Amino acid sequence: MNRVPKHEPSRFRIRHAVHISALFTGSPVPYDEREEKRFLNHFIKEVIALKKSCVLSLLLCLSLLLACFAGCGAQTAPDSAAPPVSASESEPETAAVPEEAPEAPEPDAEEASAAEASAEEAAAEPEEVLPEITYPLTDTPETLSMYCLACNFMGPLSSVSMEWDDFDCYKELEALTGVHIDFQAASFESYLTSFNIYIASGDLADLVISIGRRYVGGTSAALEDGVITELTPYLQEYAPDYYRMINGDDQLREAAYNREEQVLDFIAAYDTPGMKNGSIVRGDWLDQLHLEIQNFSDLYTYLSAAKNRFGAAVPVYMTKSSSEFSSAFGFKAYAVGNGDPCFYVVDGEIRTALNRPEYRDYLREMHKWYQEGLLYQDFATTSFDPHDNTLTQMIYNGQTAVWATQLEGLDDYEASSPDPNFISRPIPSITMDGGPDHTAAPEYVITDSDICVSTSCDNVPLAVSWMNYWYTEDGIRMYNYGPEGKAWHFEGDKVVLEDFVLNNDFGVDVSSFLRMYCPYGNFVGIYLRSRLTDYSSQLQLDAARIWSESVDGAYVIPTGVTVDAASNEELSAKAADLMTYADTCIPKFIMGDMDIETEWDSYIDALESMGIEDIIRIEQDAYDAYMG
User: pLDDT digit string (tens) for 46-76?
Assistant: First the structure.
């Protein structure tokens, strides 16, 4: 018999895993100092109960205000700090006032009455009690389908062939929940080229990934078009842990709710802000040049030497996206073929690179690099494919001088290169003056791998409850390490990885190897950035610090900015046409088939005739409405 998930009063109240100092300061914490000796149980227990804090702060402020109004005398301060008080405990005592303080004036009777009423109302407000999901979720076995990318490993693990059904974590979760997941996995190429065709078919899986990134107009448009289901009515009862997470942090709430206060998808987040992606160069070449790369000029000097002195045939392996190192010119990178105008904001003004003079400067410089042989000569016909090993082999063999990568697998380059002198060295995000990159922000909320419940799903409560598991204590651990007893075990409350993981037959770093045991990075969940700190190399720690410290996100549009459905229709139609035109011109400007000096003005005229100012205005209105 089919039934909705059962629940009972919550015993464990998880809020989003956020580092305390990052929550209050808003600044990223250096990677190698982030909770190195704290593991998941301690981490979950010490998260911030934001709602309780807000209530306490209100009560304390009101109590202090009443004390001042009443001209209360001083109380002797205790010698030591009092223990923390929870919101469920008795109302805090009136704050002490120094004995020599002058007597406060008598308050207006009406104001005092209002303040007292507010204090009583706040004190009387009960803490929200949410249910706890219990397992199994059904009395009889059930199946949910999920449209997703196929499982593919890269680098030294590229020889491993696995399907998502082969993963122990999904087998264990099926045994726990009673729900089997039918993975409708698409290849990377099929996903890029056929996603819209798949959506238009109407025959959708129950759960669909990346609607927010791939659907024109995002999740709000998908809801308007009847593609996905609104989740808001289901969350408190069927996904209490996810509900607590997105409401326990301002940034997460901003990302999870649209302008209509609707939750339309499940999103992923890191426990602390930081960067896992960045650029790497040949440190051994830098040492011979006695050079340190801090700005765009340093980078150009290095790349020229890489080609002319060290024999790198393709110093920069650029693909047709044509956006490498655009951060140096102060705009958000526009990626050819990606279907996104890539808006950013400078001093309250919405911009897109496509019609900016600084974009012209960038294309002019890339044309110079192309002529000098610093760029891959076939970039215009080369698509990015994360599973293609062409670039990897070029790196190993010294044919490429700079490349983008991530922390996982960072040590593999030195280990796999036939050059015994090979040294990998991280460099900061490149700007002209060596200052912070305003166009990128430390990663915290991850919205480009969201999961939505489609309107084809006939058991939404079951789908929502299954997704909720990944935001529970056990789910967070499963997401980051895989099931207990496989790749790791407990020693007290500490997660200890097995020796076959630490000294694996593939010779890869721990994080890469664990990809075969957990869904980390492939689906939504809570990314514990410090999960492998004890096993990270110094290179990984240095890279995380350098990449994180070089970005500040000053030009990044808040995730809460959304365009209403009516305006989005106009934006999508005009943006599609003008981007198609721009995508044909940009590679030509770089290669010289179009003259950046004589044909730029006609390019701008064409964009204006297609409505570029209109799409900027629409995004500007949405931004102004959000900020207002």
Answer: 433 333 344 344 334 334 433 444 443 333 3
Tell me 321's DSSP state.
T
Report which of 23, 76, 63, 80 is spatially closest to residue 46, judged by C-alpha positions. 23
Q: And the tokens for 588?
A: 């030509």
Taking each helix axis from N to C end, the angle separating 612-627 and 600-609, rounded to the nearest 10 degrees, works out to 60
Q: Which CATH superfamily is domain 139-274+442-531 in?
A: Periplasmic binding protein-like II (3.40.190.10)
What is the token pair recorded at 332? 């958000």
Six-digit token pair at 539?
A: 């290179």
Tokens of 451: 């999961």
Please give the CATH superfamily to which domain 277-439+554-627 belongs: Periplasmic binding protein-like II (3.40.190.10)
With H, G, I as helix, E, B as strand and everything else as coil, classify residue 368.
Answer: helix
Distance CA 285, CA 306 (A): 8
Tokens of 367: 């044309």
Task: Name the strand (E) or helix (H) holding 394.
Answer: helix 390-396
Answer for the pair 375, 319: CB distance below 8 angstroms, yes or no.
no
So where are the chain's domains?
A: 50-86+89-124, 139-274+442-531, 277-439+554-627
Q: Is the dihedral of CA 71, 73, 77, 78 positive or negative?
A: negative
**Does residue 510 register a pLDDT over 60?**
yes
Nearest partner of 410 among 539, 502, 289, 547, judged by Cα: 539
Task: Name beta bridge partners: 351.
Answer: 344
Per-residue confidence (pLDDT) for residue 117, from 0 to 100? 52
> Which among 241, 280, 284 has a CA at the least distance from the CA of 472?
241
pLDDT of 120 reads 53
**pTM reported for the whole predicted model:** 0.75
Q: Are strands 343-346 and 349-352 parallel, antiparallel or unpaired?
A: antiparallel
The b-or-e profile of 441-465 (16+ CB within 10 A means b, else e) is bbbbbbbebbbbbbbbbebbbbbbb
Same fold, 139-274+442-531 and 277-439+554-627: yes
From residue 129, alpha-carbon distances to 9, 91, 338 in Å are 7, 20, 44
Alpha-carbon dihedral sign for residues 244, 247, 252, 254: positive
Q: Give residue 216's pLDDT band: very low, low, confident or very high (50, 70, 90).
A: confident
